[in-house]
Each structure stands twice: as structure tokens, then as C-alpha cells.
Design brief:
single chain; 8 helices; mainly alpha; 261 residues
Length: 261
């Protein structure tokens, strides 16, 4: 809900600012003695060409930014699914072990998953880093597998796949740590915001009038720019701004550990 409020507020503010400036500008020009500069026909052709080129260039840059943050979010979600699936696969492959070994392994995995979802995930969203406790709990799961000598042929066949799966989970966790921060650097945001101001500002360079149709188009255009910038801002966090949906893979595969049973 908070993200929707941010989006609505940004679009409303952008639209209101453009409309207010346009109306005030039209009133000032209407009171001026020399009204020749208020004639849209007097807009130089070169200005129209430059306005079009600036808009095209900014649209390309904005499209590349959206594509970049979307790809980064998709990669981050894939890492989460890979980590959760690897841990789930361990619990399934461990069925060849004795019941006490299975129970301990599943208990340690549930402890790790519970810590990730309840404690580590908010820390990752707010501070862009993982907790040392999570690494310790994953190390306990690794020790459960690696330090037990196979007791028979069936356990020996399952041993290496289990080791491989814990390695996959650890690699996915490291990838999750690397993707915890925002995708776009500050200089890119400076360019996007500056470009948005220049692009919207060119509306006034074209001597837009005060008719309802022109005001409507100016407001919609500024609201569209605000929406696209919000889209980039929201996707710039690979695991989301609230983190409520990015951990679904853990919650779906480990319902008992995450309290969704």
C-alpha cells in the first residue's frame, strides 16, 4: 500500500506542478503588452527538432534503465528460488538416512529457513546485507551432511548429491548477498532525474497554450514521466521495497518453518 501511495503522490505532484506553471505562465503572457511571444506559430523549427531529439534520447535511456533493473530483479528472484529448492531437495534426498538423522537435518534446515524469512530478510531489505547468524545455521546443515559417514550403499549414493545441493544453496546465498543492494548507481539516478526535468521543461519551450486539451496532455505527459521513474525506483530494489513477495519460494516449500502450515 505504501508503494501505491508513493506512486499516486508522485504522479499528482508532477501533474500539479506542470499545470500550475502553465496556467501562471499563460496569465503572465496574457497581461503583457507584447503578445507576439505567445504565438505558437513563432516557435523555431530547430527548437521543435531539438525537443523531439531530447525526448527520443531520454526515452531510450529510460527504457534501458527499466530493462536493467527488471533483469536484476529477475536474477535475484532466481537465486532465491535456487536456494530454497536446493534446501528442499536435501530434505527429500535425506529419506535414505535413519529417522533420527532425517529429523535433525530437517530441524536444522527449518531453523535456517525460519531465520532467513523472519530475521535476515528484513535486514537484507533495510540494510542491504545478510546476517552472520544465517551463515552459521547453513554451516550447521553442511556439517550434518558432510561429517556423517555413509552407513550403507544407498547412503553412499545419496551422499554426493546432498553435498552438491548444499553447495548450490551456499552459492545462491552468496549471490543473494551480492544482489541485496540497489542496482543503479547514483550517477544514473542523477541523469534520469535531470533528464526528466529537462524533458518536462521543454513543454514550456514549445509555448504550450492554456486550452483544456493542451493542459490535459501536459498533465498526462508529466504523470507518465513520474510513473516511469517510480517504476525504475521500485524495480531498483532486487528483492522489493517491502520484501513481502520476494521470499515466497521459502514460504511455499517450507510451510512449517515459516508459519504457513
Amino acid at each position: 500500500m505504501s508503494e501505491w501511495l508513493v506512486l499516486t503522490g508522485a504522479m499528482a505532484v508532477a501533474c500539479a506542478v506542470v499545470l500550475v506553471i502553465t496556467v501562471l505562465r499563460q496569465r503572465r503572457l496574457s497581461r503583457a503588452e507584447d503578445t507576439e511571444e505567445n504565438d505558437p506559430a513563432e516557435t523555431p523549427d530547430v527548437l521543435e527538432y531539438m525537443t523531439m531529439m531530447v525526448g527520443v534520447v531520454y526515452a531510450i535511456v529510460l527504457g534501458l534503465a527499466i530493462a536493467g533493473v527488471w533483469e536484476a530483479r529477475g536474477a535475484a528472484q532466481d537465486d532465491v528460488r535456487r536456494e530454497a529448492q536446493a534446501l528442499h531437495e536435501i530434505t527429500q534426498r535425506a529419506q535414505v538416512y535413519p529417522a533420527d538423522v532425517q529429523d535433525k537435518l530437517r530441524s536444522d534446515i527449518d531453523r535456517y529457513v525460519s531465520h532467513v524469512v523472519d530475521q535476515e530478510w528484513p535486514r537484507m531489505i533495510d540494510h542491504n546485507e545478510l546476517s552472520a547468524r544465517g551463515a552459521e545455521l547453513l554451516g550447521v546443515v553442511r556439517a550434518d551432511i558432510a561429517e556423517r559417514k555413509p552407513a550403507n550403499e544407498l547412503e553412499a549414493q545419496a551422499y554426493q548429491p546432498l553435498v552438491d545441493q548444499i553447495a548450490v544453496a551456499d552459492d545462491a546465498r552468496n549471490a543473494r548477498a551480492q544482489n541485496a543492494g540497489e542496482t543503479l548507481p547514483g550517477v544514473v539516478w542523477f541523469g534520469l532525474i535531470t533528464g526528466a526535468l529537462v524533458t518536462v521543461g521543454l513543454i514550456f519551450a514549445l509555448q504550450i497554450g492554456g486550452t483544456p486539451r493542451e493542459l490535459l496532455l501536459a498533465g498526462l505527459f508529466s504523470a507518465l514521466i513520474a510513473f516511469l521513474l517510480f517504476l525504475v525506483w521500485d524495480f531498483d530494489a532486487p528483492f522489493g521495497r517491502s520484501g513481502q513477495d520476494s521470499g515466497d519460494a521459502f514460504q511455499q516449500l517450507f510451510t512449517s518453518a515459516t508459519g504457513r502450515s
